[in-house]
Amino acid sequence: NAGVTQTPKFQVLKTGQSMTLQCAQDMNHEYMSWYRQDPGMGLRLIHYSVGAGITDQGEVPNGYNVSRSTTEDFPLRLLSAAPSQTSVYFCASSTPGLAGGTDTQYFGPGTRLTVL
Amino acid sequence: GNSVTQMEGPVTLSEEAFLTINCTYTATGYPSPFWYVQYPGEGLQLLLKATKADDKGSNKGFEATYRKETTSFHLEKGSVQVSDSAVYFCALSAPLGGSYIPTFGRGTSLIVHP
Fold first, then answer.
1. Could A42 and B106 be called an inter-chain contact, meaning their C-beta atoms sit closer than 8 Å?
2. Least CB-CB distance to B44: which of A100, A102, A107?
3. Under a CB-based contact definition with an 8 Å cutoff, are residues A32 and A75 in contact?
4. Interface with A, mutate which of B4, B100, B101, B104 (most A CBs under 10 A)
5. What is the pLDDT of residues A6-28, one digit of tens each?
6. N or C: which end of chain B has fewer CB within 10 A?
7. Given this model, what pLDDT does residue B97 score?
8. Which of A4, A41, A101 sits opposite B32 (nearest CB)?
């Protein structure tokens, strides 16, 4: 049981390049989400999904696209990279909470992205 | 909307000292609070959680009690170790109109010296 896996671990891009950050989970979790972590800013939600074929925007969605064609995979696409997207990106998965919301989130190890 | 406020760090302690990291929140509905820990170079992982008022979550010597009347979920540990050095995040799951979105505090860095 690998949990949540993310690839790559490190990436350097030039401004304007595009790329896809991969995220996969093997726990059959309904919910998946992408966060970015910047110094002093905590975690900020980019996009999330409550099931295959269903995605929605979080707090900071601009410049990013997602899709959820299977329960297991939730890739994050950077359309045209900008230096402001230099950050550490975390993918997480979870099940619904008993009273709505979400239960424990399981995080991947992160992708450290630098945009020059 | 929902919000989580936790004390700013860094918190610097000597080994075996007592730790408290405060966390308060505002939320509608029936929120569930969590504490996550992030060790250097890693993703977040669950430390402990509570599901109803007056519940006490505990793990690895850490404890937190869900106080609905004060809307708080303060993290405590009686005797910290160097290996507890990490960033601690308070989080809240509280459905907004039935939606999923969880809310995180900004994190508190803990540094424990031998």
1. yes
2. A107
3. no
4. B100
5. 999 999 999 999 999 999 999 99
6. C
7. 55
8. A101
SS3 B84: helix
Q: Is B31 on the interface with A (CB under 8 A)?
A: yes
Amino acid type, A33: S
Residue in chain B closest to A112 (alpha carbons) equals: B41
Closest partner residue to B100 (CB to CB) among A4, A99, A101 is: A101
**pLDDT at residue B51, rounded to an integer:** 84
- A contacts of B31 (beta carbons < 8 Å): 101
How far is the CA of B92 from the CAs of A4, A39, B69, B75, in angstroms?
21, 21, 16, 14
Whether the Cβ atoms of residue A86 and residue A26 lie closer than 8 Å to each other: no
| Residue B68 pLDDT exceeds 60 | yes
What's the whole-number mean pLDDT along residues B61-85? 96
Please tell me if residue B89 touches chain A, with a CB cutoff of 8 Å.
Answer: yes
Q: B54, B64, B55, B1: which is closest to B27 by C-alpha? A: B1
Closest chain A residue by Cα to residue B51 = A98
d(CA A54, CA B66): 33
User: In sequence order, which ranges of B23-104 are alpha helices (DSSP H)?
Assistant: none
